[in-house]
Amino acid sequence: MYYFKEMSLRKLISNKTMAISAVLVSAFASTSAFAQEAAAGAAAAGGAKPVDMGPIYKSAIFYTMLFLLLCLFVAIVGKAMRVYELTREAQDKPEGINWNMINAVLFAVFLVVGLYGVYWEYTVHGNMILPEAASEHGKKIDQMFNTTLIITTIVFIVTHILLFTFSYIYRHRGNRKAYFYPHNNTIERIWTIVPALVLTVLVLMGFLTWRSIFYKVEDPNNKPLSIEVTGSQFSWAIRYPGPDGIVGKKNYKLITSLNGLGMDFTDKNNLDDQMADEIVIPINKPVRFILTSKDVLHSFYLPHFRVQLNTVPGMASYFEFTPTITTAEMQAKTNDPAFKYVLLCAKICGQGHFNMQRTVRVVSQEEYNEWIKKQLPYINNDLRKAFDLPIVPEAPTAPADTTVKDSTATKTNQLALKK
Amino acid sequence: MSTITLHDTHIKEDHLHGHHKQSFLTKYVFSQDHKMIAKQFLITGIIMAVIAMILSILFRLQLAWPDKSFPILETFLGKWAEGGRIKPDFYLALVTIHGTIMVFFVLTAGLSGTFSNLLIPLQLGARDMASPFLNMLSYWFFLVACVIMMASFFVQTGPASAGWTVYPPLSSLPTTIDGSGTGMSLWLASMVLFVISQLMGGINYISTVLNMRTKGMDMWKMPLTIWSFFLTAILGVLSFPVLVAGVVLLIFDRSAGTSFYLSDIVIGTQVLPNEGGSPILWQHLFWFLGHPEVYIVIMPALGISSEVISINSRKPIFGYHAMVYSLVGITVLSFIVWGHHMFVTGMNPLLGGVFMITTLIIAVPSAVKTFNYLATLWRGNIRFTPAMLFAIGLVSFFISGGLTGIFLGNASLDINLHDTYFVVAHFHLVMGSAAIFGMLAGVYHWFPRMFGRMMSDKLGYLHFWITFICAYLVFFPLHFLGLDGVPRRYYAFTEFEFMQKWVTVNVFVTWAAIVASLAQVAFLFNFFYSIFKGKKAPQNPWNANTLEWTAPVEHLHGNWPGDLPTVYRWPYDYSKPGAEDDFIPQTVPFSKTMSSNMPHDFEGDAEAERIQTKWNLAQEKLVKNPQD
Lengths: 419, 628
Description:
The complex is a heterodimer. Helix content of chain A is 51%, strand content 13%. Chain A is built from ten helices and ten strands. In chain A, a hairpin with a 2-residue loop joins β1 (225-232) and β2. The longest helix of chain A is centred in the first third of the chain and has 44 residues, at 2-45. Chain B is an all-alpha fold. Helix content of chain B is 60%, strand content 1%. A two-stranded antiparallel ribbon of chain B has the order 1-2. In chain B, β1 (266-267) and β2 (270-271) form a beta hairpin. In chain B, α6 runs antiparallel to α7. The two termini of chain B are 40 Å apart. At the A-B interface, α3, α4, α5, α6 and β7 of A face α4, β1, α8, α9 and α10 of B.
């Protein structure tokens, strides 16, 4: 008790009192200042209006003060507990607050509340995730995801139940002694082999799915529609192959303000390539995306179709898939008439990374045919001049001419598709 | 015990320290004493962690309230937060520097640097590290690296902004983002110095563990902490140089006109001359370090937890040998899985298949470790010190974060999850939660050893519970954002209709993050206050077996006065049946514990077994014929 009187109490009072007084004084001073300001504001507004707390709630000082107040509260509670403990000690009584018990109970409570929290998350947020996959390979991916989810959830729950119930049940109390159990090789073998087997199954599933996506065997009767996408800061350029079905060659050294993609118009295949500001693809037909980048890395991400691949400057990458649900069907499925598939960038690419959106529409074959007819070709007279190609005279009445062009285009399109 | 000064005692092994008088500079600043260097690493690590945590709150403010303006931001950030709203490229700078500081400066230097330095000599019975001078240099290179990194906030074009992974071409071309100008050069310089620091440290740790163990301390008597620090150091020494190689090539691309990572690039209408390079090369070089790096982060935390859980359950760590073999397994396997960060880079799909297989194998030793922790707790006698709370928290986070790794390691599943919030949730649970909890457990547990005083355990409980709960509240919902296809490093969710439903979740997550960060004040106050005003620590406050608790509480240059301790047994004799106390320090010979010796303690020593058998028989006779 000598130290209690001598050391702690006096210094305690002097240091802590100073600190507490300082906080209280400054809190009082600032609240007076705010009150004055608010009162002044109210007075200016004319009359006995209530104090406008608006500007106060916006100030950082308010929240700092609030936090300091909270710290003060914690300190007071802490000191009260300390005084309680010291008096118990002074009276030679056993410890007043059994912190071991409190922590053990908190773990048990955390387990119960936590399990409920996980359930809530799975059901509430779990219902806000992507709808069913809109592609063939996507269905396999989703199946594998579900299998993995079931296994990992079981492990997650069981291990956490063990962790927190052990913490509670085996807490120290009374004359408890721990059980000296340094090892058990059999059980080690079991819990090495079982996870290894489970993971082997998951790996095999993953490997087969991966192979089916990237090592697809080409079906000569069902050739994919090629579409080239070029990522740049900060938009996607979409190029359709035109009636010949082949996306023409491009060379980055040919890029000018006139020729944004650097298309090499000496390659015949470029002459019918079409521009688009959205991706439109026909249902149930394979489509093969040719992915390139003009400047930095971007990532071609179509989450609804379970498609993602980086676009790399200097290298073309390819992703082929078959869409299985039209936009209209998905709108019905998700009960959301405003639903649309999107393309977004998923690799940090600069300050506009968050704003590289393109709409993707999956439509019937007929709708696709209608739409593709209307897409303008890249080639124009300025480009023809630049590449020493004969200039095509512009027809005076655009509609009539385009119909003529269109019907030929339609014919060739149909021919191409029949292939 | 009286304080013994260096020049009063003739220490036999002490041929390393010729100097006797220590000035303030040589004692506290340019110290060559491993204990002081450990404290320097710790305090620098804590300060960097606070800075990186503040950065995270800044960008969480932007995510939760994209339309609100915070005038105070403009006060501190000036043109980067004009009108009180953070600019998109500064947002990217924030996430970049947050990640860089946390992964490298806090969880590598702050964790390995602190505890390897503190514990390797003390737990092995050595006077100091193999090279105290190199050790001192390793701290100073680290500090300079930190200063350079923070200096990048004070250049006009701002800090590096291409993500902590700084992929080229974004990171090599200042015209693609401002932060890739001077800020990126500073980042590269800082990282080179940082790696030098790590290599110096790592070489020291390995040499000390292999060469300077005291008498009786063979490899299989080392505590698991030392095993983890040793293997972590090996990982670092072998993988950090590859990052430096990648960094050097990037410096060349930026400043010497080379094309290691660049080809076919047009900025606006300006065609760049670089040809033949590939950004994928950088990714290979970066992740060849990057993957071992994450094991460098988690292994010391696992080692610390093994120790803390064992001591506070009063039980040996279950499966000591299996734990060592798991660490070795993780070390070896971590070199062959780096491609799982690159499944969707456009690299040859064959590699995707290969790396998927190796990645899922590495889950096995991690699972074994988790089960061993659970088995250690089983039928224990658990004492909830703050360190124990954090160790249990680590096990929980390691399970949660580790399991989501199984999704990401599967290449097919990764297609839709790569670069989304699912990845963010995964690594924040394993690194940002599990590893940091390991570090905190270490701080609470070894604080008495470092500062000779005790921290307040009530503040420790408060710190743990708020942080544990809030960490789950922050990171668990993020999995679902990722599963909805929300990408990471997005400045705002305002441009995509499908992201609108997550805006309220963002607000919730930000609030939880703010509460979590405020809870750290409890720790910071506790830590710094207890250094000066904490209750004086007893010799062995946790009743532990390891050697560091046999060294005097008041710090001694050379750790032990007189001879180095001799070790007779492994560190895990807790609650041994027949023993007087529930712990038997490593320095207690078997001759003193006849009643609790077990046959395999003698490791095949026939003479020792004979003596024990003789004693056992004598005891049995006494029991049967209780004369005298």
